[in-house]
């Protein structure tokens, strides 16, 4: 198993450029789960340097993560009730749904701006 430093380096290298152009005074928000490398000092320092606000979702709060809703819709509209004969056929169904969804996508803005979830970061330790 890798060290925390290696995982933090891998996590921070995923985002190799700032979310907002420098000097515009804007930042972006990244909703993240409680995966320990997200809390590593190097990851937090990178976020601070690149105008990224990390908002930690509570344990068992996957329903708060918008990507989970997108995956649920993908399963419902492209995969449920199907019996694809090949991986290529299944991939085509997924690609068709994604193209349809992207053509109708709208930005998600202003979600829970006054919510304490955006500022509260003290999570109790899990005891095994």
Largest sheet: 2 strands, parallel
> What proportion strand?
5-15%
Distance linking N and C termini: 20 Å
Count the beta strands: 2
User: Which sequence of strands runs across the widest sheet?
Assistant: 1-2
Name the helicity range.
25-40%
The rough form would be described as elongated
SSE succession:
HEHEHH
Query: Number of helical runs?
Result: 4
Based on secondary structure, the structural category is mainly alpha
Q: C-alpha Rg, in Å?
A: 18 Å
Average pLDDT for all residues = 74
Describe this protein's structure.
The protein is mainly alpha-helical. It is about 40% helix and about 10% strand. It is built from 4 helices and 2 strands. It has a two-stranded parallel ribbon. Strand 1, helix 2 and strand 2 form a beta-alpha-beta unit. It is elongated and about 45 Å long.
List the helices and strands and how they pair.
Elements: H1 4-14, E1 28-32, H2 41-49, E2 52-56, H3 66-79, H4 87-103
Parallel strand pairs: 1-2
Helix pairs in contact: 1-2, 3-4
Give the key terms.
40% helix; 2 strands; disordered N terminus; two-stranded parallel ribbon; 128 residues; mainly alpha; elongated
Care to give the gist of this entry?
Helices cover 40% and strands 8% of the residues. With 128 residues, it is mainly alpha-helical.
